[in-house]
Design a protein that fits this description.
By secondary structure, this protein is an alpha/beta fold. It has two domains: about 200 residues, 3-Layer(aba) Sandwich (Rossmann fold); about 70 residues, no CATH class. About 45% of the residues lie in helices and about 10% in strands. The chain has 13 helices and eight strands. Strand 6 and strand 7 form a beta hairpin. Helix 2 crosses helix 9, helix 7 runs antiparallel to helix 8 and helix 11 packs across helix 13. It binds iron/sulfur cluster. Iron/sulfur cluster binds next to helix 5.
């Protein structure tokens, strides 16, 4: 096990712990979130463990999450108090979620913890985008104000390609910047940003964490059922395993087609099954769903 990385992650958590309230720990039920959960305990920092129910979580994940002591399960709602689910999003957005229009993560998984300091299990090795845009601390929102404050405090920061402020140091000015900003921005600490898959698995083994049972079924990632970030083959395998969800997606696509006022001019699909077949067939650029005029 990489003791140096473990110590460094623990130090990071201690360095940015809010003075007056617990961290908001984002817990998905996947292996990375098990690591941050254990690290937060090892660091002795105050934290609340939050899981957002997406409506398309695998049943195994829901059972596993519920088995974690003190986990808080949150159900996403909109500002009017209506439940937000994958099914409502598909109808409201008028499109299935795709790799290039991945609206569901921000609506279903990342909503909670406003005005709180969040711990995430983001790792740079998980994707090229993350490697380019993540930092050990990431601040999203009010970029001009944050940059001005950072400069006044002498914090060492960069602006990510996506416009967020990222920092990789845990010196005093950077800590003061976080204290100053986290109430009014989305501020995340990513203590295992530099961890590899092997670091994660060795750490979990060392601490006796069995993890989500889906990993034992050969899954490399534990995401939502039908997640478009996987291959079409992966989607089909999941729908073979959870056929009820295939029907739920087709019904949501049917409602999506019916609810769009210009549907006959806009879509080339006639039924929810057409959408589903396109969606899981994975057009290489995922752009050819409109009728060409
Ligand atoms: S994990 Fe996949 S399906 Fe789930 S919210 Fe994120 S992009 Fe959407």
């Amino acid at each position: 096990m990489n003791i140096k990385k473990e110590k460094s992650a623990i130090e990071r958590l201690k360095a940015f712990e809010p003075e007056t309230e617990p961290y908001y720990l984002c817990y998905s039920g996947g292996k990375d979130s098990d690591v941050i959960r254990i690290l937060a305990s090892l660091a002795g920092v105050k934290h609340e463990i939050h899981h957002n129910l997406t409506s398309v979580d695998a049943p195994e994940t829901v059972y596993y999450v519920k088995s974690i002591p003190n986990v808080v399960i949150d159900v996403p709602h909109d500002k009017d108090g209506n439940r937000v689910s994958m099914w409502s999003l598909i109808v409201n957005k008028g499109l299935p979620p795709t790799r290039i229009m991945r609206y569901c993560c921000s609506e279903l998984k990342e909503k909670g913890g406003k005005g709180r300091m969040k711990i995430t299990g983001v790792r740079a090795s998980e994707s090229v985008n993350r490697a380019k845009n993540a930092g050990m601390i990431k601040i999203i929102g009010k970029p001009k104000t944050v940059q001005k404050t950072a400069e006044n405090l002498g914090a060492e920061y960069e602006v990510s390609q996506m416009g967020g402020i990222v920092m990789n140091m845990d010196n005093d000015p950077n800590r003061r910047l976080v204290e100053h900003c986290y109430r009014t921005t989305t501020t995340m600490i990513n203590p295992i940003l530099d961890w590899t898959d092997s670091d994660v698995w060795e750490f979990l083994k060392h601490y006796g964490c069995q993890g989500n049972p889906l990993y034992k079924c050969g899954k490399k990632r534990v995401g939502c059922i039908g997640c478009p970030m996987q291959s079409g083959k992966g989607q089909i395998e999941e729908f073979d395993r959870y056929p009820k969800y295939k029907n739920l997606y087709i019904r949501a696509f049917d409602r999506m087609l019916k609810s769009h006022p210009d549907k006959d001019h806009y879509y080339s699909w006639k039924t929810g099954t057409d959408v589903f077949d396109w969606w899981t067939g994975f057009d290489s650029n995922q752009l050819s769903f409109f009728v060409e005029n």
